[in-house]
Amino acid sequence: LTDMGNTAEGGSYTDNLIGTLLAIFGNVLVSISLTIQKHSHVKLAGAKDQRAFYRTKTWWSGFVLTCLGELANFVSYAFAPLSIVAPLNAVSVLTSSILGFIFLREKLKPKDFAKQYGLVFLGYTFVIGGTYLLVSFGPNSHEKLTAVNIVKHLVAWPVLLYMLLEIITFCLLLYFYKRRRANYLIIILLLVALLGSVTVITVKAVSSMLVLTIEGTMQLNYPIFSVMFVCMVASAIFQASFLSQACKLHDSSLIASVNYIFSTFLAVLGAVFYLEFEKENILHISMFLLGSALCFLGVFLITKTKKKAKIFEPYVSMNMSNGVPAIHDKGLVVQPDYSGSFSYGTLVNNNGVAPATLPVNLETPPLGPRSTDASHDHPGMKKD
């Protein structure tokens, strides 16, 4: 019995290691692919020969890497527990930020660099330390999710209670978002996170049944596979729809951090579906929660320091006498002058650039009162 138990634990440890490595590899690959595609768009924007992005080899290479990375993430759910794979999305944020530094090409003094990006490197440390704690103290047991096991989990009371609370919460949030026009970031991202919880639960089920089928145990002829597959596709589509709406209304860096925190928290909470923490002791659970908190804080610090674009709002003066607009005159203005420094001729904030000086003689010639005797100015005109 002892040998059998050790073999089972060894198999679970091997599966966890394979799933963890696949998840890390997939997230790194997705970050690299997105950077390559972004580089392709930027290069096309500055080129004289305007071609469609899908006609470039660079964009297609990034697309292929994205597919490979997402495939690795999908397969990782079949080997490692959901509660370990879901928080590893922080690796994607970490990799994207590092690649941003590589392609930034910004020359700063060491003192200025440390002052501006010190919190970013602190966030790197938190993400790396949190990832280590997640992987080390995550659930050790790994269950082979056959169709029969998934049905047993589906009808268990913890899952039914979780699904009931999730449906009620989702309906309430959707009511406030659609009917009351509550376009708050928290409401939209909570909707995304609730759908994301369903997505990762169904992804793990579909991925596990596909891997078992490839290994020789047919699972695709069970009705639960079709149910899980439809739920996976539908939740992923609606999740992407809500996330795109959030990107239109709010800052992208704030969305990245808040969405990661909400989605990961509800995904780990959704691990109750598979009872992954049932056999874990308090120490392992506490260290796992500490690792999750470190990842949350690290992602927040990494995304918090991104520069926000300032909007330039030009103004005109109220002195519009005789139909001649006097720009930047000494008269009253519609809005006060902007505190930042701008170079005239552009609509982009140029921090650190001295504002260009205007020519001295910009004043319009004074218009005196009209003479009642028009014949002095125009001798050819008759008097009434």
From TrEMBL:
Entry keyword Transmembrane helix: yes
Top-rank taxon, per record: Eukaryota
Topological relation to the membrane, as annotated: Multi-pass membrane protein
Composition bias type Basic and acidic residues, residue spans: 373-384
GO CC terms, sorted: membrane
A single MF term (Gene Ontology): magnesium ion transmembrane transporter activity
Transmembrane spans: 17-37, 58-78, 84-104, 116-135, 155-177, 184-203, 223-242, 254-275, 281-302
Primary location: membrane
Region (Disordered): 359-384
Keyword Acyltransferase applies: no
Pfam families the UniProt entry points to: Mg_trans_NIPA (PF05653)
Family: Belongs to the NIPA family.
Location relative to the cell: Membrane
UniProtKB keywords: Membrane, Transmembrane, Transmembrane helix
InterPro entries the UniProt entry points to: EmrE-like, Mg_trans_NIPA
Name by which UniProt lists this protein: NIPA like domain containing 3
